[in-house]
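Hi R.,

Here's the chain you asked about this morning:
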Amino acid sequence: MKRPDTAIIPCGGLGTRLRPMTRWMPKELLPVGLTPLIHWTLAEAADAGLTRAIVVTNPAKPILGDVALDFRSRSELRVVLVSQETPAGLGDALMRARFLLGGDPFAVVLPDNLFHGPNQTAAVLAAWQRYATASVLIADVTAGDAGTKGATGRARVREETDGSLRVVDIADKSAGRFDTGGGDRAATPIGRYVLPGDVFTEFDDLARSLPSGAELDDVPVLQRLARRGALVGVRCDAEFYDVGVPEGYRQAVAALPAAAGPSSLP
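And here is the predicted structure, written out as tokens:
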């Protein structure tokens, strides 16, 4: 099973949940520990052993491309920019990078998710290598912490005899913040995953059925993979901050002082 060497980093959104800050500055440039979020994301990809990062960005955010290309680390990571002219969904962002992949598997690393602790991109890459199937990071979110997380869908998971964690199903995204469904905690897929190169046929199929103007999201594809037993979960073992919502961004800024930063930065 070929190990991916490329991360796709979707940055085409306009950061509406973080306004008014993002009216003047791209969300991915907001600082945590004196480091812009995009550099945290690139550093994690570099530390995981990936050698190329495709940053999918919006022409309305030219400074983001400049900052991404200025990334420097102690490892070799080549940054490539691809344009997504209008925010049209995470699936659409991935499709924009398709022509650069040559049918190879790839990692998806979302800058909305910040981690302090073990490298979570490396964890989903290891699962891909071990189980030879798509893998996604799974967070267990408590009811008390749900208000600091975006409204991702709850996941049903099953422990297998081989030690793997199989994702059985994923609910649709909701609105507002994460909902544990009345329980003390709930599992949810978050923004680190590895997909096979042929997954784009799934996105093609979904795109054909979308009404005009609808966004092409990634969740329906993850749902398809889960329902046919082709998605492995990896439990998050780092501190997880959803910096795409104000509550999570404030939490990350408070938790990570100026001295904290990605270990791969020189």
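One quick note: Residues 6-255 form a domain with the Spore Coat Polysaccharide Biosynthesis Protein SpsA; Chain A fold (CATH 3.90.550.10).

Cheers,
M.
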